[in-house]
Amino acid sequence: MTALNPFLDRFFSNFNDEDLIRCTLVNSLWRKVALKILARRTEQKGNVKLYIRDSLVAIFTLTMSSLVVHLDLTEAVLPDYSSHHIIRHRLVTNDDFWNRFYRCIKNLQQLRIIELRSCPARILENLSRTHSLLRKIKSLNSIGPVMNIVHLMEFRNLQELHLQFDYRKGVIFIFDNQSNERLNNITNLALTGINNLYIPSILEVVNFDHLRALSLGSFSKFPQEFETILTNLKQLEKLRLEGLRHHTVITTFHAVATLENLKHLEMIDIDIPYGADEAIARCVNLTRLLISPNPENLSSFNNRTILCGIVKLYENLKRFEWVFARDSFSESWDDIIILGKLPYLDERGSIQIPSAMEENLIIFDQDALKTFIELFIPDCIVSIEKTTYAKSFCLQLQ
């Protein structure tokens, strides 16, 4: 068996880290050779990034390695609450899986980045006790029903926090912060699918001063002072907001226009109140913009409002995506109707916005509307998308 070691070493050296992890399951010889290669790679590059996509078995071999600093399970095949899997000849349910997973990663004390999917909130809370040195936590489609956000205070080095809970069920955050301490190193914060998200409570836990990217999702309750909070985020470069209603839409655009470093804005499931065109037109600092109105705000008048605001961003806008989301999507839904006279270029090439009083209807298909917008902002990549309301929350501007 010893004579096989040089051959296995050369053969296994062609494998990536994840495949080497799988090799440790075969027998003691393969395990010994695979671990030796992993250790050698660690000495060369200082860490191991492990992306597990198609093997639950590989996850449970993590007890053998303290080398992993970056663990990505976002594309792994995981059990859900209505299914089970067979792992090592044993029936494993969702709760079994996550309990075993947590026991395994206790040994990964070099772990600094973790990316998960369908993870229960209790596991995220427990990570604060065993992996307080994590720098990045990303958890997609997380499962509630409750989470005590004060546990996050243990992550003193945390720089990126992305918590997305199941939009269908959401989660209830518990706030019982008795100290004056906050997370001061966060530069990237995303919180979505939270039933009782109240921004002043988040500010008690997270210091927003150093934020470069912020995403606040559906179920968020935006306070009246949100404009003031937003205008103070001077380092903010990327912003995504879901579910803005009524006058908060206007004040948010006004705040965005004051942030010189903010270049990327995504507005999902928003109302289009009167005056939104002028508010959008203020945001000349933006280079990338996605707008997806709430289905109840899809009207010919509101379509014109958005159009008249967008064409005024011709100086700097390089990427624009306009999403039409409905509760149910039909391929027969082709027409995009705009009420009132359209913007036009005068003989000097200046953009003119006629009065909206005339009630004439202009009908576009997606390609025609895209081409029309590009007449005003020719240096901008324009996309016109149609999708279901549920899928609109998954859209991101690339």
UniProtKB/TrEMBL annotation:
Record InterPro entries: GenomicStab_NeuMorph_Reg (IPR052283), LRR_dom_sf (IPR032675)
PANTHER family listed in its UniProt record: LD23158P (PTHR15739:SF5), ZINC FINGER PROTEIN (PTHR15739)
Name of the protein in its database record: F-box domain-containing protein
The species this protein was found in: Ignelater luminosus (Cucubano)
Organism lineage: Eukaryota, Metazoa, Ecdysozoa, Arthropoda, Hexapoda
